[in-house]
Design goal:
The chain is built from seven helices and no strands. The chain is mostly helical. It folds into two domains: about 70 residues, 434 Repressor (Amino-terminal Domain); about 30 residues, no CATH class. The protein is elongated, with a radius of gyration of 20 Å. It starts with a helix and ends in a 16-residue tail after the last helix. The model has no long low-confidence stretch (mean pLDDT about 80).
């Protein structure tokens, strides 16, 4: 387990990421049902974010337990409709969310690629001539 100061700094960094994702401190505070002043004080280093508050934020935003302590938090955040997640972000998300290793995450992405590809592997193309 990393030293407490390292965890506190990571939570502060992740809080900043969440604020940027939500647009304002107030919007994030509404989403996690907490006082915006409390979040501003954490953001500005006036106070630290304890484990209880970190877990509350994770539950409110449907993040995996420990997400506020993780350096990969940005990969766990929802993406806007129509936005494409990078392969690196997808790998980090799968590893964190499903608690799997990189090789397992890569296999999962390969399966998803096949499932959601626009062209099915054995699909016949319209207008193709039949032999025989």
């Amino acid at each position: 387990m990393p030293p407490l100061k390292v965890v506190e700094e990571q939570r502060r960094t992740n809080l900043q990421t969440l604020i940027e994702n939500y647009g304002t401190v107030e919007a994030l505070a509404r989403a996690v049902k907490t006082d915006p002043t409390y979040l501003v004080n954490i953001k500005n280093g006036v106070r630290d974010m304890g484990s209880k508050k970190a877990r509350q934020i994770e539950r409110a935003l449907s993040l995996p337990k420990g997400g506020m302590d993780a350096s990969e938090l940005g990969a766990l955040l929802p993406i806007a409709p129509g936005q494409v997640m990078s392969d690196e972000a997808a790998l980090a998300y799968l590893q964190m969310r499903w608690r799997i290793d990189k090789a397992q995450a890569e296999r999962a992405i390969a399966v998803l690629d096949v499932m959601f590809s626009k062209e099915k592997p054995n699909a016949k193309k319209k207008g193709a001539k039949r032999s025989g």
